Amino acid sequence: MKKSILALAILSATAAPAFAENSGGFYGEIGSGVVAFSNSTIPGTNAAAFGNAAALDVAAGYRFNSMLAAEVGYAMSGDAINSYTNATTTLKASVAQVAVVGTYSLNDSFDLFGKLGGAFTSITLSGTGAAATWGSSNSSSNLLWGLGAQYNINKHFGIRAQYENLGNTNVVVNTTTPATMSVGVGMTSVGIVYSF
Q1: What DSSP designation does 41 have?
Q2: What whole-number distance in Å separates Cα of residue 60 and Cα of residue 27?
């Protein structure tokens, strides 16, 4: 009987941290990755589509329980540059977001998650040389969705990998005849999560 009570006490003590980890609380994340621009070929020109750009992101959230959280975040890309003989064009983006995050735990170490919310995107187009007048600043509000996985190192630290689709933003190109391209923004990133 004493052995059973002792075993139960040890089991309760070792289970407590896992229970506390899943009971909710605040967390923060910082990461880096790549922003991919789609539909980014400037209309009426022979210019190539813009390539990928490096990105940084930060986020803060609150877990209501082991399955549901609310999160806000901000991300910004570096410059995606196209260079030509007599001109350069540059595209870059910044995004503020708010989302609901649903999590499914495979075990104590691995979680899968999905997010759904709103993305508030700003995209800047600029140019030099023959493209100096093409520039514009553009913004939009879009549906955000994302998918990812997290490896929990311990109850405080985790590593998160995710993909986020941030919708499309109409970008005006001030060529001789102004044109618009509907630029899609998708971000793939890896980050460190700290749970308080």
Answers
A1: P
A2: 6
Domains annotated for the chain, with CATH where assigned, are 25-195 (2.40.160.20)
Residue 170: C-alpha distances to residues 24, 48, 77, 87, 105 (Å) = 39, 18, 17, 22, 38
The Cα diameter of the chain in Å comes to 89
pTM of the entire predicted model: 0.82
Backbone angles phi, psi at 39, to 5 degrees: 55, 40
**Parallel, antiparallel or unpaired: strands 68-77 and 157-173:** unpaired
On whether the CB atoms of residues 77 and 35 are closer than 8 A, the answer is yes
Total Cβ atoms within 10 A of residue 196: 8
Contacts of 166 (CB under 8 A, 6+ apart): 95, 97, 119, 121, 142, 144, 184, 185, 186, 187
130: left (phi over 0), alpha (psi -120 to 50) or beta: alpha
Q: Yes or no: say if 57 and 30 are a contact pair by the CB < 8 Å rule.
A: yes
Angle at 75 between CA 71 and CA 77, to 5 degrees: 160
- For 44-69, how does the pLDDT look when each residue is reduced to its tens digit (9 = 90+)? 777 788 999 999 999 999 999 999 99
